[in-house]
Structures are given as C-alpha cells and as structure tokens.
Amino acid sequence: MSDGPAEAPLLAAERVTRTLPEGVTLVADISLRLARGEFVAITGPSGSGKSSLLYLLGLLDRPTEGRVLLEGRDTAELDAEELAALRLSRLGFVFQFHFLLPEFSTLDNVLIPIRRLGRLGAAAARARAMDLLAALGLDAAAAKLPEQLSGGMRQRAAIARALANDPALILADEPTGNLDTRNAAAVFDIFERLVREEGRTVVVVTHDSDLARRTFRRVHLVDGRVVRDGPTTG
Amino acid sequence: MRLLLDLARGMLARRRRQTLVSVLGVALGVAFFIATAALMRGFQTYFISQIIDVAPHVTIKDEMRDPPPQAATLAHPEGAVAIAGVRPQDRVRGIRAAGDKLAMLEAMEGVAAAPVLTGQALLRYGSRDVSVSIVGIDPARHARVSNIQKDMTQGRLDDLRATANGLVIGEALARRLGVGVGDTIAAISPRGVALSMKVVGLFRTGIQTLDQQQGYALLKVNQVLQDRPNVVNQIQLRLRDVTRAEPLAREIEARFGDRTESWEEQNQNFLTVFVIQNAVMYSVTGAILLVAAFGIYNIISTVVYEKTRDIAILKSLGFTERDIQLLFLVQGMVAGLLGAVLGCVLGAAMIEGLAQVRFGVEAPSGTDRFILARDWRVYVLASAFAVLAAGTAAVIPARRASRLDPVQVVRGAA
C-alpha cells in the first residue's frame, strides 16, 4: 500500500453517486483518495458498480452527485474537451477487451495517443513507442497487426498504448478477463513493476481474488457502496 | 490532422470492396456529368458561335421599341382622357440621318458598322417561286460586320460590285430554285418592282433559315428593288468584344431612339432553351451524384456501426467529439475525392469515346461527329460537387459517431 491519504491525493472521489436517468443507482456516496504509487484492486460481485466507479475515476463518466478531483482540480468544472485532454495526457486505460484498432500495426496503435497529444516529433514518438513495446516484450511484434498476436500479447500492447503518454494513473477494467492464468499473472507483473519501479498509480477492477491479493490496497463494493477499503491481506 | 487522415485511410482500406463500390458510384456520377456537359456545352457553344459569327452583334432598326407618345399625352400627362388604338407609323424613310449615325458608330473603338436595307422579294426561276429576304449591303463595309465572306462556297461578295444586279444566295436556296452561279433569275418586290438578277455567288452558314431564305445584293440595287431610294433600315455592328453587345445596344438606343437589339436579345428564345436544357442536364447528373452520395452515407454509416468499439477506445484515449466527427467526415470526403479523380479520368475517356462516334451523315455543322466542349472548369465543378455531396452524406453518421458514449460501448462489449 502507499503512504496513505495524508499526502495530496493524485485522485479523489468525494461522496460520488452515479444514478442513471431510469433511476438505477450504479454507485452511491463513495469517497476515495488515491495517492501516487498506489496499486489498488476494486473488487466485488457482478453488478456491484466496480466498472462504473472506474469510469467515474477515469473521467469517462460524470457523477450525478459528488465530485472527482484529479491532482486537486475539480473535474466537474471542466467541459468535454478539457476532460478529453486530461484523459489523453494524465490517464491510461486498459479494458477487458484489448480494443486495438485492427487496421493498424501494434506500433501504430501505440503511436495513436502519442501523435494525438503531439508533444513529440515523429522520430521521438516512434522511439518512445518502441521503448514501451520492448519493455513489455513486444519489440518483435511491432509491425504485426493485432490479429497476428496472441491474447496475452494484445493485452500487453493495450497496456503499452495506455502508457504511451506517460500517465500518472492507469485504470484497468478486468484486464485479465480474457486471459489464461499465465498471461493474467504476466499482466499483473507488469502493473506491479509500473507501481514499484516507476511510481505510477494503478487501479484494477477484477473478479479474481488471487490476482487482487497481489495489489496493495483493496476496495470492495457491494450494491454500489464501499463495504471495505484497506490494505490487501494475504 | 495527419493522424486523422491516417486513421481514415486505414478504416477505408479495411473495407476495400465497400469503399470501391461507393467510389465507383461517385466516379460514374462525375463521369456522366462531364460527358453530358461536354455534349451540351459543345452544341451550345457551337450554336452561339455560329450566331455570333453569322449575325451582327448589334442591329439598329428603323423602328421604335415603344410607339412615340402622342402630343396630347405629352401635353397632359395626368389627363383624364386616355388615347388608345394608335396605329404604328410606317417609316418609309428608314433610319433617319443614317449616314451621320454610321459615321459616329464607326468612330467608336472596337466597333465596325455597315448600312443595310432588308426587304422581302419573290425569286422566280422558271416556274419555281421562292419568297426570300434580300439584304442590300455595301460589300466592303459588310465584310467587316459579317463573316458571310468566309461562308461563301462559290464566288465572292465583291462580285456583287462587278456584276450589274448581282445576287448572292444560300446553297440550299439555290437547290430549291434549281439555279447555280451565272444563272439569271427574276426578283419581284412587294412594291411590284421586278429586276433580273444574276447569281454571282453561293454561301453556306449551316443555319438553315439563312441558307434557304436569304440573299445578298448591293445596297443600291436593293433600294431600287424595294422602291426605297436612299433608305437604310438597319445598321449592323460587329464588336471586337461580343460581351459588350447588350450594354452598347442599350446605350445606342438611348442615344438615337431607334430600336437597337443585341445578338442576345435577337436570340433570346434559343438562349432560354439552353438555360432549360442546362437545368435538365444538371438536375439529371446531380441526381446521379445524389445517389452516389447515398452510397457514401451507407458506407460511413456501416463503418460507424462496425467501429463503435474503436470510437469508444479513441474517446477514452482522449479524442474529442470533434476529432471523431472529423475522422468520419474525412472518410466521406476521401471517398468523394477518389471518386472525383476517377470520375474525371472516366469522363475524359467518355468524351474521347464520343468523339470517335460518326453518324455517317454530314450535319449542318460540317462534321458528322459530336461537337464536344472540353472545358477544365466542368471537371472542377463536377469534382467539387462530388466532394461536397460526399462530405454532406458523411455528416449524419459522423455526428452519430461523435456522440457515442464510450461507457455504454465498453460496458456492452465487456
């Protein structure tokens, strides 16, 4: 676990509630503070609001009540363009399905967010993408299309894409849901390395208790509410 | 923008067959537009150039556009009594002070003028009578306002001067009468004057009404035939710049009071038909492009439907609604642009193909092929319309794509 919420949080959810227009409440009154270097698992049974909470923390969705602060900035005050800019530069997403664009090579997929941000020139962007792929053991697969990769390789490519713009926070929604045990463990190895060696914050939604035990902190939801938030126990 | 273009290209390339069908639809629309325009404009341009070539650019006539106001009307413009049934005055004297007007007109920059007396006559050869219009001309001056000399197939205009009572007639008229150069025919005017006239030349303009019903004689000879000594009932002008015809005609009419008609006014009925023809042509080819645009709409809609997940991931990566909308708009425009380029090539090939068609019968234009206009502006117009139609067709699916909620998509895909 990190040093705890006493430090200025990277991300804070304050009494966040998300209710659909039909009246269904996905998450209710959740408060959460995430510091830099935390490795957090969001667990809970199906329909408990794990993914909904992740989308709220990832600024893909807006709370109907409460607020989400990223690096002290109240995101409720931001318009759609500003939220998109924050997602591009500060957040990285990994989903259960890899969502790599099938028309483009692995390298091109990783280059998409780098090119969209536009901070690096063509050569530097390519070097950055190749470094990421090499770090995840995909340098030989750079020119291959997603359909030519195995499931584990695709998910690693998706992680490389999430890391493309050097985000402070990685949000992963059931990233191992489609992987076998060996590949799932490999993905968690990568997350652990990102936290321990690079000081990033990783939040993972998972069903898998064994994998959840590898994180430092566990937030357990039931019926859209946090019923337990504390260090992961072995 | 480069990134969006790359993404658009990749998405279109992935659906190669669908894209090809849409591109071909646009290409056919553009090609038909170009080929039809070449046919229509070719004919119209030829027709107008013939008019400009054969007929004077401006004609001053010995009549008034409106009847001159009566003295009583001038004296009492607000009077309670209206004057009706005023009969037109027969101006036997023709254009007043024609010599002075001619001198003034000839002094103008870029204007050539020639006096003319036109009148009806009956040409008789043997037992055959044909009613024609005889144009009395000054050959030297007339050669400057008309290209009739160029259309002479036998003899020259100057032969009118060298022969007493010489007459130049259209080839078609000569055929109707059964005469040739050197034959003498009788000409009788409505006033009962009869002259023996010798055919000294033949012409062919390609315009049937002229070739069958018109003849040229010396001005003095026609004045005798029409029994209108020293009368000129028309002054014909030829301009270096034909586009000046209408404003100059208005200026002359305002100055001299004589009815003055430009070539546009004289051929307004044809020009109106051309406008209608063009409207029909552009409507039909526009409809083809519209159908092609539906093809573009279809492919972009399909791409949006199939790329729902990709749109969601792009949004989660930080692409804005505007980026997504632009991405699909670009795809529509790219398909339209490809179609336009291919259509231009196809259209050019169709024009060259049409140029090879031979009717086997010589048309009045002197050729047995289509008269085709090759104008780069038609290509630009067709391409611009195609790209615009394709872009417009992509707007709706692009907007739908931009409004996709990534959360709903990701949740549905999970």
Automatic annotation (TrEMBL), chain A:
<dbReference type="InterPro" id="IPR017911">
    <property type="entry name" value="MacB-like_ATP-bd"/>
</dbReference>
<dbReference type="GO" id="GO:0005886">
    <property type="term" value="C:plasma membrane"/>
</dbReference>
<keyword id="KW-0547">Nucleotide-binding</keyword>
<dbReference type="GO" id="GO:0016887">
    <property type="term" value="F:ATP hydrolysis activity"/>
</dbReference>
<dbReference type="InterPro" id="IPR003593">
    <property type="entry name" value="AAA+_ATPase"/>
</dbReference>
<dbReference type="Pfam" id="PF00005">
    <property type="entry name" value="ABC_tran"/>
</dbReference>
<dbReference type="GO" id="GO:0005524">
    <property type="term" value="F:ATP binding"/>
</dbReference>
<keyword id="KW-0067">ATP-binding</keyword>
<feature type="domain" description="ABC transporter">
    <location>
        <begin position="11"/>
        <end position="234"/>
    </location>
</feature>
<dbReference type="InterPro" id="IPR003439">
    <property type="entry name" value="ABC_transporter-like_ATP-bd"/>
</dbReference>
<dbReference type="InterPro" id="IPR015854">
    <property type="entry name" value="ABC_transpr_LolD-like"/>
</dbReference>
<protein>
    <submittedName>
        <fullName>ATP-binding protein</fullName>
    </submittedName>
</protein>
<dbReference type="InterPro" id="IPR027417">
    <property type="entry name" value="P-loop_NTPase"/>
</dbReference>
<dbReference type="GO" id="GO:0022857">
    <property type="term" value="F:transmembrane transporter activity"/>
</dbReference>
<keyword id="KW-0813">Transport</keyword>
<dbReference type="InterPro" id="IPR017871">
    <property type="entry name" value="ABC_transporter-like_CS"/>
</dbReference>
UniProtKB/TrEMBL annotation, chain B:
<dbReference type="InterPro" id="IPR025857">
    <property type="entry name" value="MacB_PCD"/>
</dbReference>
<feature type="transmembrane region" description="Helical">
    <location>
        <begin position="326"/>
        <end position="351"/>
    </location>
</feature>
<feature type="transmembrane region" description="Helical">
    <location>
        <begin position="279"/>
        <end position="305"/>
    </location>
</feature>
<feature type="domain" description="MacB-like periplasmic core">
    <location>
        <begin position="19"/>
        <end position="254"/>
    </location>
</feature>
<keyword id="KW-0472">Membrane</keyword>
<feature type="transmembrane region" description="Helical">
    <location>
        <begin position="20"/>
        <end position="40"/>
    </location>
</feature>
<dbReference type="Pfam" id="PF12704">
    <property type="entry name" value="MacB_PCD"/>
</dbReference>
<feature type="domain" description="ABC3 transporter permease C-terminal">
    <location>
        <begin position="284"/>
        <end position="406"/>
    </location>
</feature>
<protein>
    <submittedName>
        <fullName>ABC transporter</fullName>
    </submittedName>
</protein>
<keyword id="KW-0812">Transmembrane</keyword>
<dbReference type="InterPro" id="IPR003838">
    <property type="entry name" value="ABC3_permease_C"/>
</dbReference>
<dbReference type="InterPro" id="IPR051447">
    <property type="entry name" value="Lipoprotein-release_system"/>
</dbReference>
<dbReference type="Pfam" id="PF02687">
    <property type="entry name" value="FtsX"/>
</dbReference>
<comment type="similarity">
    <text>Belongs to the ABC-4 integral membrane protein family. LolC/E subfamily.</text>
</comment>
<dbReference type="GO" id="GO:0098797">
    <property type="term" value="C:plasma membrane protein complex"/>
</dbReference>
<dbReference type="GO" id="GO:0044874">
    <property type="term" value="P:lipoprotein localization to outer membrane"/>
</dbReference>
<keyword id="KW-1133">Transmembrane helix</keyword>
<feature type="transmembrane region" description="Helical">
    <location>
        <begin position="376"/>
        <end position="396"/>
    </location>
</feature>
<keyword id="KW-1003">Cell membrane</keyword>
